Amino acid sequence: MPVKNRFAELHSDITAWRRDLHQHPEILFETHRTSATVAEKLRAFGCDEVVEGIGRTGVVGVIKGRTDTSGKVIGLRADMDALPIHEQTGLAYASKTDGAMHACGHDGHTAMLLGAAQYLAETRNFDGTTVVIFQPAEEGGGGAKVMCDDDMMARWGIQEVYGMHNWPGMPAGSFAIRPGPFFAATDLLDIEIEGRGGHAAKPNETVDPTVIASQIVGALQTIASRNADPVSNIVVSVTSFQTSSNAYNVIPQTVHLKGTVRTMSLETRDLAEKRVNEICSGVASAMGAQARVTYHRNYPVMVNHPEQTEFAAGVARSVAGTCEEAPLVMGGEDFAFMLEERPGAYILVGNGDTARVHHPLYNFDDDIIPAGCSWWAGIVEQRMPMR
Question: Is pTM beyond 0.85 here?
Fold first, then answer.
């Protein structure tokens, strides 16, 4: 099953949908226009059921095959939300919303799944039921979990679920995947160090939280270098350092640190949380201050299921000829929540030599649309073949 001719015919339409979405990016759960556009198209395609408001602003469409002797139900998921980034591409279809941009290609994911939905609704060349899932708030809002918490999997009887993400740096239209842990758990840190502020000319009368916070930033790096198993995967990054004063001659009362911890196993995740709390408390106490740590467990490790991964790779090979083994990714992906609920797999599709995701110069390559759509359609037609 190479790239389907129907997607070559639909290519210009799907590209137009994608560029329209790109011009009107919406962040987190505020995907009102995007969700309405998706629902309108799904109804126009003739989906058997279209439901809005799942996971606040998510949309679910149901497409029944010509037959249903298998009783199988396959879920296909695309994310819809954009990022709070000011676009700098200068494209004719660049974002019209200041401070918001589709810098991760979710506009492309949504458009490709819409294209696949149109084809599947037209042909229905499968034995079972397809559920297309359009999710808000992947970029930090955990929209996948919110949709699952709305009982989405049980309501539509979804048995397996599949996701896709474009990947700059891979040849356009190529595929890569790996079984087991794939994307990292992404936890968030808020650390407040409280000392005793005062005049910068009399540091001896203060407990300087700036110095203490600086010591903590350095000490946190020993979690990876001296606490975690050297062959484990862990990243500890302090990304924000804010004092309660910005004056030249004032030692502040407090310092607020923010950061993230990325891990690939529950054991390493538990170790990291334990050591973050111990290091912050110990360093602050030793220097006469207090440290309050809020350790927020955000997205879990995204784990591809072996059988579904092998199947997804086979579909990719039937489309593109090959499917490479993907590297581990220390970025997070909330599709992890769906893979905790149901077996499934997540694949990367090459986006060519473009700016990396989350960059103001990023752009989705519309030439990969037929390959992505064909993979979605192949998942359905090969997993639920006609008898």
Answer: yes
